[in-house]
Amino acid sequence: MSGPASGSQSGSRRRGVIRKVGAWPRGSLLGGLGEETREEFLRLGRPRQFATGETLMMEGDRTRHVYLLVDGCVKLTANTESGRLTLLGIRVGGDVVGEFAALDGQPRVATVVAAGPCLARHIPHETFVEFLQLRPEAGLAVNRAVVEKVRWSTRRRVEFGSFSTLTRLARVLVELARSYGEPVPEGVMIGVALTQPELAALVGAADITVHKALTTLRRAGVLGTGYRRIVLHDLRRLQSFAGQGQNPSEYEVPGRPGRDSVNI
């Protein structure tokens, strides 16, 4: 695990890229903050770099610090009662992880692992709580983030018993596109590398069943897949498979030749 002293040149390059891009996902914690509060948040704690597969937090730990993700992607996993490891969710730059334990003092409910090279800020519990008290905007934003995570989990539980695997897969893909979508010439690429078993865990279905559902969507021209890569070609049709109506667009990207533009 690299600390702030080692690889400082690499860290500077990464932070330079972040500042140059200057855009946080709209659904992320930082994306919903004003510039002054966001910059103050980014100065809290100390920087840490994590390599692919490195653990940021462990399920069951009683630590209370948080990590503010600056660049990269992490996966949240937990063990089921049967001992199976399941993927609970994904967080990217602009999100915070570990806030549940920081706020309620209970053991960690998930293990957080870097899905690729990751830059984060380690923020002690006391510093985090004090900042939320002094900056009501940040406190409200963290509350919204917690509520959204609970809502997401609740939707998954309801959908597991109410919809087919194909419908649940389509709904998960729509949500991933809204949160992590990156416009590309072919449509929208989900900017998170997921294995098929990980996607199956998010959907709550067997790997082979999700494979069949992906094949259905691929043959319908809705998406294309590669190694840990999903590109959505037709969001409107995907929403139809998801049983959802036309939702307000957050942004528009060019469609493939002969197709309409793709909205998210």
UniProtKB/TrEMBL annotation:
Residues 163-236 form the HTH crp-type domain. Residues 29-132 form the Cyclic nucleotide-binding domain. The keyword rRNA-binding does not apply. Residues 245-264 are annotated as: Disordered. CDD domains: CAP_ED (cd00038). One of its GO terms (molecular function) is DNA-binding transcription factor activity. One of its GO terms (cellular component) is cytosol. Keywords: DNA-binding, Transcription, Transcription regulation. PROSITE patterns: CNMP_BINDING_3 (PS50042), HTH_CRP_2 (PS51063). PANTHER family: CRP FAMILY TRANSCRIPTIONAL REGULATORY PROTEIN (PTHR24567), DNA-BINDING TRANSCRIPTIONAL DUAL REGULATOR CRP (PTHR24567:SF68). This is CRP-like cAMP-binding protein. The lineage of its organism: Bacteria, Bacillati, Actinomycetota, Actinomycetes, Streptosporangiales.
